[in-house]
Amino acid sequence: MSLTLFVLRAAQAGGLLGEPGRLWPQDGASPGVKVPNPPASPPPGLDAKMNTLLSWGKYGVLICGLAGLFICGGQMAIGRKNRSSFAADGATGIPWVLGGLTLAVSAAGIVGVFFT
After folding, report:
1. Where are the alpha helices (DSSP H) in the chain?
2. What is the pLDDT of residue 28?
3. Residue 25, class by beta-carbon neighbours within 10 Å (0-12 exposed, 13-18 middle, 19+ buried)?
4. CA distance 69 to 32
5. Are 100 and 61 in contact (CB under 8 A)?
6. What local confidence, expressed as pLDDT, does residue 13 receive?
7. Rounded mean pLDDT of the chain?
8. How many angstroms separate the CA atoms of 116 and 74, rounded?
9. CA quadruple 42, 45, 49, 51: dihedral positive or negative?
10. Per-residue pLDDT tens digits for 13-70
11. Rounded distance, CA 68 to CA 9, Å?
C-alpha cells in the first residue's frame, strides 16, 4: 500500500474528505484563539536609561565617523607622492565612513518604519 493511498484512507476514515470546508475557517471567522499583538513599550523605569544609552552610542559613532574621515584624509595626504596605493586606500574608505554615518543617523527612522 502506497503512502498516498494510506493517507487518503485515513482521511476518509476520519471524515476529513467528507467535509472539506471543515478544514479552514468560513466567512473570515478564525478557528482558533486570537493571538495578542500589543504595541512595544519599555519596562517601567528603563525608558530614560535606554534613551541615555542610545544617545551615548550615537555620539560614539559620530566621533568614530569623524576620526575615520580624518584618517582617510591623512592617508590621502601622505600617499600623494610615491605611495599612490596608500592614497587610494584613503579615498576608498570615504564612502564606507559616510555610509556608516548615514546608517547611524537614520537608524531610528529605519527601525520606526518596520515597527509602526
Report:
1. 3-13, 47-78, 84-114
2. 55
3. exposed
4. 56
5. yes
6. 60
7. 80
8. 43
9. positive
10. 655 555 555 555 555 555 677 878 788 788 888 888 988 998 999 999 999 999 999 9
11. 69
